Task: structure prediction
Amino acid sequence: MDAILFNFHDLILVITAFECVLFAALMGTISTKNLKTLFFVGFLLCHALIPIHELVFWGERFRIWVLEISPNLFFLGGYAYFIEGALLFLFVKSLVIKDFTIDRKSLYHLLPLLIYIFYMVYSFYTLSHTEKVTLIHTQHIAYSAPYLYFDALGRFVRLFYAFACMLIIFRYTQLLKQTYGTLQHTTLIWLRIIVISMMALFGGDALLLALKLYYLNIDDFDLDLLQILGTSAYHLGFIVFNLLIFLQFSIFRNVDLVEDFEHEEQSAVGGENINPELVAQIEKVMQETRIYCNTSLTLDDLSSAVNIPPRKLSQIIKSRYQKNFYEFVNGYRVEEAKRMLKSPEYRYRTIMEVYLDAGFNSKSVFNEFFKKAENMTPSQYKKLNGDQEKVINK
Result:
């Protein structure tokens, strides 16, 4: 993948690195200094090192420039492969979890980086200056077994973290329904887009290294194919990170937070003994205050109304009704909509007015829950209950 200084592919790498540094600096100055911001800034700065590493590693003139300074600088950008995935993982986790903090377990994310540092100290930094320069000039180290295996480890570690991010999103989707009475589906869509894009980027790099390991075993490297795959990864990285930067400034602030996954798992255990008085208290508030008609109702809101801690309230709902909070609240909203559809007061009101007054803010969600409960559409239900007037449905 050697190339002339500043050919088109090199420019893509330079622009990618520049954008990452620029937006990391911008985020660090205009955004609140919280963990989410710190992880995102660290992720951007970390990724900026990767195109620089590619330029130094494969660009003939860049390689010479670095060697003239010191061969010890040659692999500095490569360390980013072993920490970038962890920073993405921590960023996604801090993005969706309420009161997210760093604990001792977080230090395990540094383990791949420490292993790589130990390997580099043992296999490269202890060599003489002449041996280092020779390895770099001949590119022998780029196709040697130990380095390729460790290089592949870095790429597959990134891919592993991308899958871990997807798992967080899956669990987050489930926890949203235990915390909110209304879901903003756009939140899940853009988050999935980001992680899937990262999976494609990291997967492409992992595929490239897997192919190198295959060529290593058969002792025959197809350099042309490797160059095509490598340069394609440069362009994909450019696209993905521009998408990531755009979404950071557009909608990252609209994420609904949930409790920590570990806390949720602990609260799901041992919920058999439910106090009937607490159940009666919940039902009384739901029926008398019609709090479910609030389209933005959350578990915390109901918790304050019934004077039961959120985690305990969630446990009661799951154990007593075998429903999550989302299903529990929308069940009441369906009953309210049924009452409205049979009421003369709503004779000439539209279906939209009915589901909005009942607490729904989405026609599709309203129809989904209504059909599940009554096995018919809201319009059919209204006609079946004696209203012969034409239903005005927008």
Remarks:
- The chain has 17 helices and no strands.
- Confidence is low (pLDDT under 50) at residues 1-5, 387-394.
